[in-house]
Write a structure and sequence with these properties.
This protein is α+β, with helices and mostly antiparallel strands. 29% of the residues lie in helices and 21% in strands. It contains 6 helices and 9 strands, in the order E-E-H-E-H-H-H-E-E-H-E-E-H-E-E. The longest helix is centred in the C-terminal third of the chain and has 17 residues. The chain is elongated. The N and C termini lie far apart (44 Å). 20% of the residues are buried. The structure holds benzoic acid (BEZ).
Length: 182
């Protein structure tokens, strides 16, 4: 059955630029991103690899390692080949895996649309704010903007937990400034 959000991410062994790895061991307490390119470099893939390399420091800041998938082991395990789109080439799926080894994000674009890696970084920031502070991000949120207190935290507890203040718009919609913003 196809993977869904919150499922345990399949473990695997792979040959990478970092040598032979076991995915779970390699991840350790880090966050991971998996995405796949067809082996023969296509024009869109080339731009994606270039963009990812340029953002290497941004991924490192968020404690996220990136690995390659040379023999489609990961592509097959994570269901990135969609036969109705192409029998051989992977679609542009991307997965974020948390330190708890659960699937946190799945995005699938068609092969002709290059992924937006700034959006991927933005979602990782959002996921990490939720994991660390029980905060969610509103539509179009950008780093530094106010965050939403998750419904599981009462307004009374939120006032104690977030010393920068809690703005109550509705009983279910409470904003607070980003705790770790400068
Ligand atoms: C590619 O560069 O991967 C690509 C371009 C056009 C259509 C499909 C894929």
């Amino acid at each position: 059955m196809a993977l869904r959000l919150g499922d345990t991410a399949p473990d695997f062994k792979a040959t990478t630029t970092e040598g032979e790895i076991n995915f779970y061991e390699y991840l350790g307490d880090s966050w991971g991103i998996l995405f796949s390119h067809p082996a023969d470099y296509t024009p869109v893939c080339t731009t994606e690899l270039g963009r990812t390399a340029l953002l290497k420091e941004e991924f490192a800041k968020r404690n996220v390692p990136i690995i390659a998938d040379e023999n489609k082991t990961v592509a097959n395990l994570y269901d990135m080949i969609h036969p109705n789109a192409s029998a051989t080439a992977t679609v542009r799926s991307l997965f974020v895996i948390g330190p708890d080894k659960l699937v946190k994000l799945m995005i699938t674009y068609p092969a002709s649309t290059g992924r937006n890696f700034h959006e991927v970084l933005r979602v990782i920031d959002s996921l990490q704010l939720t994991a660390k502070h029980s905060l969610a991000t509103p539509a179009n949120w950008q780093p530094g903007e106010d965050l939403i207190v998750v419904p599981a935290v009462s307004t009374e507890d939120a006032i104690k937990k977030f010393p920068k203040g809690v703005k109550v718009i509705k009983p279910y919609l409470r904003y607070t400034p980003q705790p770790d913003a400068q």
